[in-house]
Request: fold
Amino acid sequence: MNEQILITYASRTGTTAEFAQAICETLQQAELNVKMLPLDDVKDLSGYSAIIIGSPIRKSEWLPEARHFIQSHQAILARKRVATFTACITLAMSNAEQYRRAVREWIAPVRTKINPVSEGLFAGRLDFSKLPWSWDVLGLRVTVALGIFPKEDRRDWNAVHAWAASLPKLLLQ
Ligand SMILES: Cc1cc2nc3c(=O)[nH]c(=O)nc-3n(C[C@H](O)[C@H](O)[C@H](O)COP(=O)(O)O)c2cc1C
Reply:
């Protein structure tokens, strides 16, 4: 198959990068031609038939570099099939389902710029060993201490692989 799919992502502490890797593996098992690159390494989208873009949430938004990426490539992304995936700690809460609609709203600005065929929303994790000190991080530590956000890794790899497995028929038509 000549059609190549790009998986690209922004990630500060590795969660979203690991989701990108899992999505890549699932698509490769389906014998798709897939390339995976961090957003910063993507120069030209013209050679790809479909693009999967991932970002974590910080302060209820995609990372600035991910928002900048879709802004600066908006014209070409409009001509391609695109899927997005998002990692956030809210979806790792024990009562996460009631926040799913709010999380979808956080990525509404993304949806207005590109028109994704599918949006994966995944429980991320807080890895304090990789987060430099800041007031925001202190606030997150407090929410963990209060038992609001989980300390442990609650990522649902089955959900990630299942979402990835749903993509070929949506991205390659
Ligand atoms: C400063 C900061 C702000 C965050 N803000 C949010 C938020 O508003 N909502 C949320 O659900 N998760 C939030 N998170 C959690 C991240 O989305 C989560 O840790 C994610 O898995 C990080 O992905 P990465 O390792 O790819 O950077 C925040 C994390 C940090 C460090």
User: Anything to note?
Assistant: Residues 11-16, 56-60, 87-90, 124-126, 131, 136-137, 140 surround flavin mononucleotide (CB under 6 Å). The chain has seven helices and six strands.
